[in-house]
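COURSE: Structural Biology Practicum
ASSIGNMENT: Worksheet 4, Part C
STUDENT ID: 0417
INSTRUCTIONS: Below are two proteins. For each, the amino acid sequence is given first, followed by its structure token string. Answer the questions at the end about the second protein only.

PROTEIN I
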Amino acid sequence: MRPADIEALAAPGRPALRGNLLLTALSHPDLKANAARSALRRVSLDGGESAWTHGPRDSAPSISPDGRWVAFLRAGEGKGADGSPQLHVMPADGGEARRLTSLHLGAGEPVWAPDSRRIAFTARVPEPGRYGTEDADGETPEPAAEAPRRITRMDYRLDDVGFVGDRPLRLFVVDAAEPAEDPEPLTGAGYDASHPAWTPDGTRVVFTAPPEWGAAESDFRDICAISAEGGEPEVVVRGDGYSERPAFGADGTLFYFGQSFEEHREAGMTGLYAATPEFGAGPVKARRLTDIETVDCESSAGAPAPRGSEVLVAVRNRGAVELRAVAADAADAPLADLPVVYADRTALRSFTLDGSVLAAVIATPSSAGEVVLLGGGEPRVLTDYSKPLRDKGIRPMIELETTAPDGYPVHGWLVLPEGEGPHPVLRVIHGGPFTQQEWAVFDEAQVYAAAGYAVVVGNPRGSAGYGQTHGHAITNGFGTVDVDDVLALLDKALERPDLDASRVGVMGGSYGGFMTSWLAAHHGERFKAAWSERAVNAWDSMVGSSDIGYFFVDAYIGASPEVQRDRSPLSYADRIEIPFAVVHSEHDWRCPLEQAERMFVALRRAGAPAEMLLFPGEGHELTRSGRPRHRVQRFEAVLEWWARHL
């Protein structure tokens, strides 16, 4: 796989299923347009697929309960409402799409009511005079001429979104047959409403919102409800942490994903919860169905899916994402007790359920995702979106297992280039830290392997997928046992005679960038050079400059300024002697640009051979969802760097 081959990374989105109609939005980077392109595809339950829409930016299909209509989002090429994703609906048996909304910043994913007529969604609503809207005087100021923002709280911006206090996320309901020209939001402007879901009788919409309707900063989220006709919202489930993706069972039981903050506010295991709301009677307490130590639900794969007396959920497990069944009356059920619906050396990206028919999008070590029919025997792959990628040449993932110096088990993979070697080696460290390297195609490893490098990746302590104790192991301990695990896995790989232990480089982004900086300062003799990207280098300034810094740093590192400095790679920049690349995006608000600038200047002042590479107009997610040309340019810069130093 070469840098420009990212265009072959075709990824189907969450499928929509009703009867024999199965739809997905297929997206891929487009280098000529320098944007992501997507269109809806119809997948046959017997195998094969065909175009349903032609894009260029169609997404989020949702089929009405009666099977007659398909709602989806369509974005245009213009500015404002013409370029933002807008809600559309079309007949399920084909025909022209009708546009339902013209919201300036666009609409969110559609959620059908049980009556197959109304649709709930969320949308950001800007203050007048901002983001290209008219102000009180009827003028439309340019961004640089907007009025100053008055900020009174710490959660005022979000990476890859921007400022949020002046464009809250509000809940809407629209009539698909007779949409209002200018729909009014149901929820207020003082808080974000997220994850809408209809009650079974269609009278209310439940959603998540911060406590006390956003009166103060909080990463807690309650489950709330409001009449579909409007009125005052109410809290129906008050959790002990974060809540998301509510879904109702046929009997009115409400299931949702949550994280408990009673003991830990970092590396939170996402569990399945259940409650029976008592509308109008005040909030109720939910019960946790899954074990907090062993079960970590992957909420991005979709809401809990009730099926008879059980609920289907995706879970992270040792680099895989599996589909498991949880009994609806379970209490703290451990992973070992959850029946396997689907599990393999793959990552289930999303799934949908209609009656007894279950479809999923599953990524593998050689694909970004295929639509697969599950249940009733062996999984049946219905699409072949990965063929163009396989034609580019995909190298297999070789599993590695070893132990750290303290005897702790370490798990990871090696991606080998073609040829006998000995090959130069790249130790690539993932971000998070509470995420996992997966049994799925990793474009970075494939590009580097195609260029002749052996790539070592893995899940050191602090990662997800190995239990809560594993995830919490580096709380107040960044740069300790995680370093042991990173180096132990590298040493395991270097036992192979086809790897060259004298030519090893280290690289990573975000937390992986922190680890790269830390290793270069404390174990620089192990590496020829380092590539540290979107890194945390100074915890003290991270507190006040990152969108999540005001709570993330205290939770993971601690509030002591002395400890923050002790755990900061910047404090040890004068120890770094190897060639060091500082790589960052100019609009990164997760690990702000000053993290790169301070490190680069400290390295240069200390005489280190350091370079800095800055990407304009990009945020923290450049390598995954940045502009396609920047992604290719980054790959080319990475390969040029390692060609020089390895």
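PROTEIN II
(use this one for the questions)
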Amino acid sequence: MILARTLILGFPLLIAALAWWSAETSRHSHVQGKDGIVVMLPQNVPALNPFLPETEVERQISDLVHEPLLRIGAEGALQPALADSWRWSQDVTCWFTDEATAKRALVRLQAQGRPATAHVKGNALLLSFSETAITGVQQALEVIADLQPQPAAFWRIERQTPLREDWDRFTAASTLVGQIQRVWFDGPNACEFVVSGPAQRLLDELRVTLDSGPQQPCTLTLLGEVGALVEPVLDLDIRPGRFWHDGKLVTAEDARATLEFLRTSDWPLPNRDALRHIQSMQVQNDGSRLHVTFRKRYGPALAAFADLPMLPAAWWHHHPAATKADFSRDSPPGAGNHRIATRNARSLILTPASHDLEAPRFLFNFSVSPLMTQIGMRTHTVDLVWPATAADRAHFTQMRFTPPRQRLVVLWNTRHEILQNTRFREALGLAVDTSALIRALPGRLGHADASLFAPGLWFSTRAQQMPFDLEKARTILADEGWPRDVEGLARRADRSFRFTLLTPAGDTLHRRAAELLVEQWRKLGAQVTLEPISEEQTLAQRLREHRFDAVLVDQRFEVSWDQLPWWHSSQASPGGTNFCGIADPQIDLQLEALAGEFDPVHVPARVRELEAKLLPLHPLLTLFTTHDEAAAVPGLPGSANAGAPVPDWTLRTLAAPLPVLQLKPRTDK
């Protein structure tokens, strides 16, 4: 009786609640007008940390609100954003025994008309070259070589305990501190510095200071010695007339404050290594230019500024140790095409940042239940459901797939007793039917190419995967002396064809993909044992120590053309990041040339040369990319033909197209 009474009273309340929700959504939609797009999401309201988005939708919302210095456009090329131009140059510093010798060197170089900019500061000769080629630097140094510039040495200090306080104490007290020309802290327990001239006395004093007291003894390592310090410089000019959403002008100081926080934080950012190479940053030209000096020649550093959001310096000032909670409590003003108009526990409204901007407004409803979604679809008050369920697909005629952010790959340990054979790695690749994997696995998956680089970039080669050919794969094993026995296992007289595949535990996609791979390789004749690893740190340690046969991992795509950490022989020893153990002198040279390329125009040719040499070694097996899937109403902006999927869309594609300016390097100083 009580239950019946509850149902009788509760059902009208439920209907009333649903009616209220529908009316509220409709009201928001009408507030938006015909130019509004209503999006329904089951997830909670995101923090909207533009640097650490937890989901793809959070990343795309932040992309509407915040703007980077440079952007990767729809065609995959660099385009202007907050910065409208960029220019590489390089500074060279030589130290002499005294100021008089430095001035003699200056006079000699000026007599030959190079470089364009040079001056003396104390016993240092400072040169500036407008090009990044090292040839001009070498020619200039040959002119003054007989004046015997003092060598500059690179040193690294490491200690198990923090050393910043002791370092500051030493530099405040030492009379030799003038020899220290550059300092760079690599975390709290490590430091690198450049010292000019004879440095033994300085090093002895430094060691005494750092080793005094209860601290652990420090380790002092010489990294290298050069005749002159060469530092690449990147100038980024802020586009005039750009404003934050609070009405304040965007300046280079905002970019400097953002990059200063990010490079000293421990956040897992894309292209983080490039940010770590920053030596110093200066604001020039009355706040319109960011002058960034790097510690070494590293052309791909430019990619670190692409799609990296900038925030106002004033916001960083009030949040010097920003956390996820800070972004939730106090959303920073952006400089993107959309601004946050309303934000509460269940919804978010974005409106165009300018009245002159022809773009739709967005209403995001969060924590939406499947029932609410169905009501929204039936009342025609929703345009997009993300992610899409089977029920959503039945009511919407268009499916939209986000661009891939990562792909699943298998890395081979090329020092394994069996997998060291290149032909065996090729055979294992031929035996994998990726189309069958995609059909059998949950989620929206896409075919991946075999290129080392992210798809869609201007230098990506779209190298083709090996086609599925089980018979050819079996023939390779037989030709190499590993025929299959009566049980179908490939073996030699002394052992069978077997290895272990490490897999991240706890993820359904990884687990099922690994199981299907084992089944496909079993048909080849390979006996593969799965070893799930539950802790990310444990898996990372196994990779660093090269204690694996093969490993299934997610490869996150980055906007960079540097592959040196992953394939250079200097990183092939335990502790390095060349987990596969590839060691080839010619590949090393190609990797070094690519990492030293500053001109994006020349990157594609170097990439093709590298992949032509590296990919035939089959160091990895690419499987598939992963995508988000959303259900959309017909006629939503950015649509293709009605009923047809629209691949690689983003929320930016739903907005009215804006004119795009091509970013070109400046030729002036």
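ANSWER KEY EXCERPT:
Q1: Residues 2-32 form the longest helix (31 residues).
Q2: The first strand starts at residue 36 and ends at 40.
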